[in-house]
Amino acid sequence: MEKIVEQGLLYDFYGELLTEHQRNIYEDAVYNDMSLAEIAEQYGISRQGVHDLIKRCNKLLVGYEEKLQLVKKFTEAKKTITKIDTLAEEGKELPEEECRKHLDSIRKLTAELMENF
């Protein structure tokens, strides 16, 4: 399941860099859960051709991520935002002094976020 999520994220970020033909076949395989035989029949190519194209697309998407690291940055930003939200929620119930510490932590996390973008 994790590989499907990773493929989906990579495609969401870099799919537009693939050709229309590559996108169509990749979407049919990953999102529409079509078999290689079904895709091959639909596009008039061999099953091996479909397999090779999907493999090439995966390699391209991973290569884009290695160079640009947009998915990594997105994932890290999401984790940081979750921490900020947790600190803000916890801070509601704290005395003023501890609340200030939470605010300092939130400021540090937001500074990290801004630095990464």
Description:
- The chain is built from six helices and no strands.
- The protein has about 120 residues and is an all-alpha fold.
- The protein has helices at about 1-15, 20-30, 35-45, 45-70, 70-90, 95-115.
- It is elongated and about 70 Å long.
SS content category: mainly alpha
Order of helices and strands: HHHHHH
Strand fraction: under 5%
Instruction: Compute the separation of the termini in Å.
Output: 29 Å
Mean pLDDT: 90
User: Which runs of at least 5 residues are low in confidence (pLDDT < 50)?
Assistant: none
For the largest beta-sheet, the strand count, sense and barrel status come to: none
What's the total number of strands?
0
Please give the share of residues in helix. over 70%
Alpha-carbon Rg, integer: 21 Å
C-alpha geometry: elongated
In short:
The protein has helices at 2-14, 20-30, 36-43, 47-68, 70-91, 96-116.
Write the layout of secondary structure elements.
Blueprint: H1 2-14, H2 20-30, H3 36-43, H4 47-68, H5 70-91, H6 96-116
List keywords for this structure.
117 residues, elongated
